[in-house]
Amino acid sequence: SDVGSQKERVVTEEEWLQKWEMGNIGFHKEQRHPLLQKYLDVLLNGRSGLRIFFPLCGKAVEMKWLADMGHSIVGVEVSEQAVKDFFSEHSLPYCEEPVPEISGAKMFQSTSGNISLYCCSIYDLSSSIVGKFDGVWDRGALVAVNPCDRQRYASLMINLVEKNSSYLLVTVSYDPNKHKGPPFYVPESEIKSLFG
């Protein structure tokens, strides 16, 4: 499980913001992810009205899809443009307010109240701010997190989920010596050591 030259790679918040500004968002998918559709029953586990967390959510179309099913969606995204694009592309009215516990952070909430997107660094969040979640859809977060921050990320995610929660994680497998990332290669052994 050689992670090659990726171990030291760091992508800054400014670089992510620039990707959104330049429209360099090949990681965004216009269609629902087929793996979420395939494993939706695993995520929901026969339950309704769940609180589902979308780490590094971008403008993921699955947020509206799950909200329309009656679930409460909370996402976090560093790009305000991505968050605003999500609401405008789905014609969802929203309100915007500061997050008192996090300097400079904003929370964008659909007027229906079932979608709340925090615009800040994910590492500024805690369960005291956003509560705990019944499910997580991690389609592109762990693989986008800088390798040096994975332990910090996993610890936060473990802290944000309820005991009986479901965590769906999508990773990518490739030779890390041939691609510098992101998305970063996260070997299965590391996922097990991070999440147990």
TrEMBL record:
Enzyme Commission (EC) number: 2.1.1.67
GO biological process, alphabetically ordered: methylation
UniProt entry keywords in alphabetical sequence: Cytoplasm, Methyltransferase, S-adenosyl-L-methionine, Transferase
Xref: SUPFAM superfamilies: S-adenosyl-L-methionine-dependent methyltransferases
Catalytic activities: S-adenosyl-L-methionine + a thiopurine = S-adenosyl-L-homocysteine + a thiopurine S-methylether
Pfam families: TPMT
Amino acids binding S-adenosyl-L-methionine: 16-27, 56, 77, 121-122, 139
Annotated localization: Cytoplasm
Main subcellular localisation: cytoplasm
InterPro entries per UniProt: SAM-dependent_MTases_sf (IPR029063), Thiopurine_S-MeTrfase (IPR025835), TPMT (IPR008854)
GO annotations of cellular component type: cytoplasm
Gene Ontology MF annotations: thiopurine S-methyltransferase activity
Keyword Cytoplasm assigned: yes
PANTHER family named in the record: THIOPURINE S-METHYLTRANSFERASE
Family note: Belongs to the class I-like SAM-binding methyltransferase superfamily. TPMT family.
Protein name as annotated: thiopurine S-methyltransferase
Species the sequence originates in: Chloropsis cyanopogon
